[in-house]
Amino acid sequence: VEGTSVFSPIEKLVAKEKTGISGSPVFLWAGRLNKNKDPLTVVKAFLKFSKDHVAAKLYMIYQTTELLDDVQKLIAEDSNNVNSIVLVGAIPHQEMLYWLSSADFLISGSHYEGSGTVICEAMSCGCIPIVTDIHSFRAITVNGECGFLYDAGNENALLSALTVALQADTEQTRNKILHHFRKELSFEAIARKMQELAAGL
């Protein structure tokens, strides 16, 4: 793992007081609004998902706005679910702790990532990843054992993953993810692995 997280989970109610998040369940997307991060596939799938799960909400945090007009157009065209997606915009990195602790699930639409810092940060807060089936995310989630994988660019695959995730025992999955982060992805875990590699030279 090239990087990890300095965050640790905080009480969800405390986090929600800070963020003002509502919805059940709460999903979060965070990244640049570009083709690689693929927010359009995420929005299309979530709008379909929200038709059967009207209390669910997706919050989108983004640092760049290349595809913002396209995202806004997709949301506006679906008048029945226009309130199911909230465009937050940019926030200071230190505040991600509260957003990740407020949310139940983190969605990623990336087609390629060298690592996956925001995935690690989510897992460190007990936020369950629903991410694309790419090499780096398979490594972080242990081939989907600690999260849910779907084919990049496939909105129906994401819709299926969202539905399956909702049927899982959220608290059990959350605890499994927190344990995995501490054991395999934390600073302590990375240091231990480096020591083991050095000792084997």
Please name the defining characteristics of this protein.
201 residues, 6-stranded parallel β-sheet, 6 strands, alpha/beta
Give the secondary structure arrangement, pairings included:
Blueprint: H1 12-19, E1 26-31, H2 39-52, E2 57-62, H3 68-77, E3 85-89, H4 96-102, E4 105-107, H5 117-124, E5 128-132, H6 135-141, E6 148-150, H7 155-167, H8 170-185, H9 187-199
Helix content class: 40-55%
State the end-to-end distance.
20 Å
Computed over alpha carbons, the radius of gyration is 16 Å
Strand order of the largest sheet: 3-2-1-4-5-6
Structure characterization notes:
The chain has 201 residues and is of the alpha/beta class. The chain has helices spanning 12-19, 39-52, 68-77, 96-102, 117-124, 135-141, 155-167, 170-185, 187-199; strands at residues 26-31, 57-62, 85-89, 105-107, 128-132, 148-150. The protein has a six-stranded parallel sheet with strand order 3-2-1-4-5-6, with helices on both faces. α2 (39-52) links the parallel β1 and β2 (57-62). α1 crosses α4. The model has no long low-confidence stretch (mean pLDDT 93).
Give a short summary of the structure.
With 201 residues, the protein is an alpha/beta fold. Helix content is 48%, strand content 14%.
